[in-house]
Amino acid sequence: MTNNVFTDKQGIINIELVDQDPLAIGETWGKIEEAAHALRKKGKPVFLLYDLSRLEEIDTSTATAGIEFSNESDWDKLAVFGGNAVVKKMTRILIRASFTASRMRYPETREEAVRWLLEK
User: Fold this and answer.
1) How far from chain centre, in Å, is Cα 110?
2) Which residues partner with 12 through β-bridges?
3) Predicted TM-score of the model (pTM)
4) How many CB atoms within 10 Å of residue 80?
């Protein structure tokens, strides 16, 4: 199964994370960067919405790379939703460990995540 990256009609980059293989993660981040660049080129903000509902665990190498990616990438807000209790706990720890934690949230639902991303 591969990860899915797409920009929705609200201009939010959606990332459905399924595969944590390093090659798949690299390809996914390349697609995110491409979508972010296209939004910036149009003068739009870059909002990332991660769907972790299909993950059962978070690989430590993926987690470490995720922190590096969030610290080095050009985005305005990042929201994460979904995942079991283990995924949620690990992700919340990673968010707190990030230099960009003030621009990140982990709401309970997709709707809450979208609402937070779009609020000014």
Assistant:
1) 12
2) 47
3) 0.88
4) 24
- Half-sphere exposure for 60 (CA within 13 Å, toward CB): 0
Cα separation of 28 and 22, whole Å?
10
Nearest to 88 by CA among 115, 120, 113: 113
Give the number of other CB atoms < 10 A from CB of residue 25. 19
3-state SS class at 101: helix
Confidence tier at 5 by pLDDT (50, 70, 90): very high
Per residue in 16-68, pLDDT (tens digit) is: 998 788 788 888 989 999 999 999 999 999 999 999 999 888 777 777 777 77
Helix boundaries (H) for the chain = 22-41, 60-72, 85-97, 110-118
Q: Structure tokens of 33?
A: 């960067």
In this predicted model, what pLDDT tens digit does every residue of 69-95 receive, in sequence order? 777 788 999 999 998 888 888 877 777
